[in-house]
Amino acid sequence: MFRVGHLVNYKHYDNDTMAFRDFQALENATYGVTLTVRTAGFIREAKVYGKLGGDPNDTVHDFRTVLSWEDFDITGYEGNETFTAFIVLPVGKVNNGSGQYTLGLLIEECLSQTCKYSADIVRIGCRYWDTEDNAWKGDGCKVSSKTSRKETICLCDHLTAFAADIVRVPTRDPSYSRSRQVVLHDDSMVCLEE
């Protein structure tokens, strides 16, 4: 569902061991992160930390997850493998605030071997069609933590047509692009490109 972005050299900053990726977080939003790492060696695990308003570390963070090699889709061949995983940052893990949110990525193997990586971020929302207002609304709907790169799972407390709203979070450009909206109605699916 989400394309892999441009891979850059994994490098850590200021004598730290983490690579960082910043984005502007919105209050009460759910985010998905596609982590892709290309390397000549094997990656046993990757640690991902998140913090609102500053750089995370192993003791100060709002979010932490450890991805084992089993959490990655592994493609390529020995000596040139690509590891791809998807992480959901639920509303509560982004600290219910807005502002600069920083992800810290720690891959021990990338400290001693050449790695390229990308951390592509999307904001994911679930909406339903309000027939009285003729508008998409989000109250009563949330994104499931079981959402993956291949499907968005919406949890809504009512039965109406609903959709997943997916917006790519920019890396540098302040303008954003709408990636895809999927509308479900009467057991059918329509994909709308904007």
TrEMBL record:
Instruction: Give the principal location in a single coarse category.
Output: membrane
Which is an annotated Pfam family here? GPS
Q: Which InterPro entries match?
A: GAIN_dom_sf (IPR046338), GPS (IPR000203), Polycystin (IPR051223)
For the keyword S-adenosyl-L-methionine, the answer is no
Q: Does the keyword Transmembrane helix apply?
A: yes
Q: Which domain of life is it from?
A: Eukaryota
* Compartments, as annotated in UniProt: Membrane
Q: Name one GO cellular component term.
A: membrane
Q: Which UniProt keywords apply?
A: Membrane, Transmembrane, Transmembrane helix
Q: PANTHER family annotated for this entry?
A: LOCATION OF VULVA DEFECTIVE 1, POLYCYSTIN FAMILY MEMBER
Its recorded name reads Uncharacterized protein LOC118403402
- Lineage of this protein's species? Eukaryota, Metazoa, Chordata, Cephalochordata, Leptocardii
